[in-house]
Design a protein that fits this description.
Keywords: DNA recombination, DNA-binding, Transposable element, Transposition. Belongs to the transposase mutator family. This is Mutator family transposase. The strands form 2 sheets. Strands 3, 4, 5, 6, 7 and 8 form a 6-stranded mixed β-sheet that branches. Strands 1-2 form a two-stranded antiparallel sheet. The longest helix is centred in the N-terminal third of the chain and has 22 residues. It contains 15 helices and 8 strands. By secondary structure, the protein is of the alpha/beta class.
Length: 422
């Protein structure tokens, strides 16, 4: 017999030893034990060795477990998912993408029932096996299950840690509203926690990216526990990365005092191209990119000035843009060098937007605003969980400690009156 005994055989042994256990929720426990054995077996296949086994085929090692509660017809079962020292593991039997597929299915069904779906959507519904139609009760049941989980996720508290970095961006979706198809702004906020891990912080849907809309969205994050940086406690939101939308900038200044703003360098390059054309912008953007190739704060400042001066004669309009944008394009420079590449652009959240668009393109026109929240909220929840399951941090623990040290060094001494109470 090996040192490792399966969960199911252990439970059977307990039942045989004490017959009373056979009447105490034993079916749910047997299901839990069986699922745990399947999870462990899949982990063994991925690792190349069983627990405590020495094998030349081993590719990595176990590194503890993380809990996962699974809802089943027999009740909730608690599983332990193995963690790996290298790479990540999520058992295929738990279907990490199932919630998104159910949300997409529910949106398509709702579109068909309301009679607003396109021919492509109707073909897709039939391809899913619904040749004779879909009942309203079935759609209501599916939507109810998804809406509850998505609402809980989007309104959860986010005060469990501090978020030094925020990334904000918007994309547009077509939604049917009052008998017309209108374009709606979907805004998403992601953050990097004090532990160096990425999280989805929230989303909102509105008519346009106005100052009021962004202000309301950021205020909702504050109300849910997003911490701002102060002189007395610098461990809060310190940098927001986004495009140069005037409404967003105004909202950040009003709602997130103490946070700097980093203008996305990719968006700035697009602005340069729009200004002088594609052909002429290539060498100019190549020159501007040398600013971001520097390795020290002083070098970034010096190169920025050199690039601006070199463009003043041939491209005075671009030189003026650079002069106006200097504090915004170089917001990253005061932070640890290890963080620069991941905070000076909105590329991380744009990859998330591409996943949103991929799902939304299947629907094409959402039947209502609730269906947007249902589907996109499910997409964001699944992405959030994938980031949580991943073993690799967005920023290393060492670089995050360096950030904390930098913030405490640069924080102004707290004034005594800050500690006075009314």
């Amino acid at each position: 017999m090996t040192q490792y005994q399966s969960a199911l055989s252990t439970l059977i042994g307990e039942v045989l030893a004490d017959p009373e256990l056979a009447h105490q929720d034993v079916f749910r426990r047997m299901l839990q034990a069986g699922l745990q054995d399947l999870v462990d077996a899949e982990a063994t296949a991925k690792i190349g060795a069983a627990r405590y086994e020495r094998s030349p085929e081993r590719t990595t090692r176990r590194n503890g477990t993380r809990p996962k509660t699974l809802a089943t017809p027999a009740g909730e079962v608690d599983l332990q998912l193995p963690k790996l020292r290298e790479g990540s593991f999520f058992p295929s039997l738990l279907h990490p993408r199932r919630r998104v597929d159910k949300a997409l299915y529910a949106v398509i069904c709702q579109a068909w029932i309301d009679g607003v779906s396109t021919r492509k959507v109707e073909h897709l519904v039939r391809a899913l096996g619904n040749d004779t139609g879909i009942s309203r009760s079935t759609v209501s049941r599916i939507c109810g299950e998804i809406d509850e989980a998505v609402h809980e996720f989007l309104h959860r508290r986010i005060d469990h840690t501090w978020f030094p970095y925020l990334f904000l961006d918007a994309t547009y979706l077509d939604v049917r509203h009052r008998g017309r198809v209108v374009s709606q702004a979907l805004v998403v906020a992601t953050g990097v926690s004090g532990e160096g891990r990425r999280e989805i912080l929230g989303m909102a849907l509105g008519d346009a990216e106005t100052t009021d809309f962004w202000t309301e969205f950021l205020r909702s994050l504050r109300e849910r526990g997003l911490k701002v940086a102060t002189d007395a406690d610098p461990l809060g939101a310190i940098l927001v990365t986004s495009d140069a939308h005037a409404g967003l900038k105004a909202a950040v200044k009003a709602i997130l005092p103490g946070a700097g703003w980093q203008r996305c360098r990719v968006h700035f390059a697009r602005n340069v191209t729009q200004k002088i054309g594609s052909a002429r912008s290539k060498p100019v953007n190549a020159l501007i990119s040398t600013i971001f190739a520097q390795t020290t704060t002083e070098a970034v400042t010096a190169q920025y000035q050199a690039v601006t001066d070199s463009l003043r004669g041939s491209f005075p309009e671009i030189a003026a843009m650079l002069e106006a944008a200097e504090p915004d394009l170089t917001g990253f420079a005061a932070l640890p060098r290890e963080h620069w590449q991941k905070v000076w652009s909105n590329n991380p959240i744009e990859r998330l937007n591409r996943e949103i668009k991929r799902r939304a393109d299947v629907v094409q026109i959402f039947p209502d605003r609730d269906s947007v929240t249902r589907l996109i909220g499910a997409v964001l929840q699944e992405q959030h969980e994938e980031w949580s399951y991943g073993e690799r941090r967005y920023f290393s623990d060492i670089s995050m400690r360096k950030l904390v040290h930098t913030l405490h060094e640069t924080a102004e001494p707290a004034r005594p009156e800050l500690y006075l109470t009314a």
